[in-house]
Amino acid sequence: MGYTVAEKILLNHSDVDHVEPGQVIMVRCDVVLANDVTGPLAFRQMEKMGTDEVFDRSKIVMVADHFAPAKDERSAILIKRLKEWSLAHEVAFYDQGRGGIEHNLIAQEGWVVPGSLIVGGDSHTCTHGALGAFSSGLGSTDIAYCLVFGEFWEAVPGTFQVTVSGEKGRFVTGKDVILAVISQIGAGGGTDNVLEFVGPGVRSLSLDERLAVSNLAVESGAETGIFPADETTAAYLDGRTEKKWEAVHSDPDASYARKLEVDFDKLEPLIAKPHNPENVVPVSDVVGIPIHQVVVGNCSNGTMTDLRQAARMVEGKSVHERTRMIVVPATQKIYREALAEGLIDILVEAGATVSTPTCGPCFGGHTGALAPGENSLTTTNRNFKGRAGSPDASVYLGNAFVAGAAAVAGEIVNPEDVAA
Amino acid sequence: MIVAGKAVVVPGTNIDTDVLYPGIYLNIDDPELMKPYLFEGLDRSLRDQLVGDTVLVVGENFGMGSSREHVPLAMKAWGVRCVVGVSFARIFYRNCINLALPAITCPAAAAAAKPGSEISVDASAGKVSVDGEEFVATAVPPFMLEMLERGGVIPWAQHKLARA
Prior knowledge:
heterodimer; A: 420 residues; alpha/beta; Aconitase, domain 3; 5-stranded parallel β-sheet; 15 helices; 18 strands; B: 164 residues; Aconitase, domain 4
């Protein structure tokens, strides 16, 4: 019996000579990532372990993104601790103004290559499956162990094969592919498994869109969502990394726990209704719901592709008087590219607030919390009750076309009806 | 490994870590200081039941979402000895095992438990007792069982460092 991509990568990063779902193995990491929330907690756990030595400083990346720029003294202390620890251990550290949201950042900076093993103290570490890597979100005690030993324990997951087919519609994006999957299997349906995306439709997904697909894999309970590397991956990595890599593909006789299909021909932009990403409906089902805040950004949809989509919907128009629009480019580099391309000007002219890269508005940490009774349409990945401010607010998830359209209309609309 | 305590029932499916410990309190890194915010987005009154040794009884896909370890850290700081549930989200489950907080899958016991029920859990034997009635739990894999019995990842790491 052959292996899936996930099984092959795990096999390549362990000392065992065979893997199968459910088996518990120790797995070596190529990158260990943490942020200003999970890093300092991991450092505490390292102290309890009684060591200050890291396994390999060239494989560790720390990013100030969650509470950066610091919202208060306690947050500032965490970021200071992250920075001082990083400097003392001579590991990569990206401060505000020099980095961005960790997942987009480390992909952009060439830390991630196909076949590699990425762990991060953040559930959206699953994002790196977009580059054909195996990536796993872990807690801080796990990260502490990874920092010291460069490995973690892993129950080998099964694989759900998702075949994407058909022609992508004008306002349909990667976000809609993953919402369709979550809708099919539910918020816990992917637990103990990874998703693997194949089929002719995958070719029409840009790397930015794949990042969004993989990013929301965890919202189905899956450990990651893997796109086996292809020409899109190679083009993205060209000039971005000096790491050597080879594409990893599943064997023809690999065993899948489940097979799913997403057909672009039947897909329209989707919305996940409050308060769970599995509450997915076509946008046409929720047209007319008033929207008080729109957020375009975060680790799922703050890429150039997303900013272009949002800008296209608001260009030459004004954000509706009922609505606040917040745009968060995912990295400093994206921010500059968007400036150079004139997107920021289009968005600001329309009345949007543009923020420095940060996780703040996505997790209710800071910048853009919601009041009771308010509705928000965001390109982020979670709409849990209270996550973005008041528990009596409602968050709808959608793609950046839908978000831009809602900002202009002041309510949920089908982008088809706003577009010129 | 045998643990026991009074049941605190956390109703609902897909209970996410945001309601269990809201994001605005993630800038706290001392477990004692995390305690006042456990269940803050779900039902604050659940904290009033966290007296002495307790066992949380939870539903399906408990702990989904964010990797925030603040949730099991705050649970442990409150004296929660075990979590018995229908099913667990992956990272929450890992975090529990790593902190030596047994997360036991046993839907029948979860259904039988009422607030205040006396629960005892034998993780090694895969048994859960609720007010004297015994239920068979999903077996904890040997690796995770050993991790629990050793006291979690920190003693595990200390042991490994001592051997090096």
